[in-house]
Write a structure and sequence with these properties.
Elements (H helix, E strand, L loop, with lengths): L7 H18 L5 H13 L3 H8 L5 H24 L1
Helix pairs in contact: 1-2
Length: 84
Amino acid sequence: MTTISVTEDVKRRLLRVTSELQLKLKRRVDFNEAIRFLLVQRQEKRPHLLMEACKSTIGADEALKELATERKRDEEKAERYLSV
């Protein structure tokens, strides 16, 4: 067994995770098991989240056109400012 040092806020957050696991599993859970849970959870792939993040949002085309228009205006202002 190895000892690790963590700050107080990390310890509190880990204690919160441990408590939530204990409620969920209805048994005693130690810090080691809580850390293992967090590591495994981090490694899980969630393709539905990727698909959700990649799908087009409503109004994206209009927003892209507006962004291009504003960028062109900014470049024109910069050109006028620098050419004086």
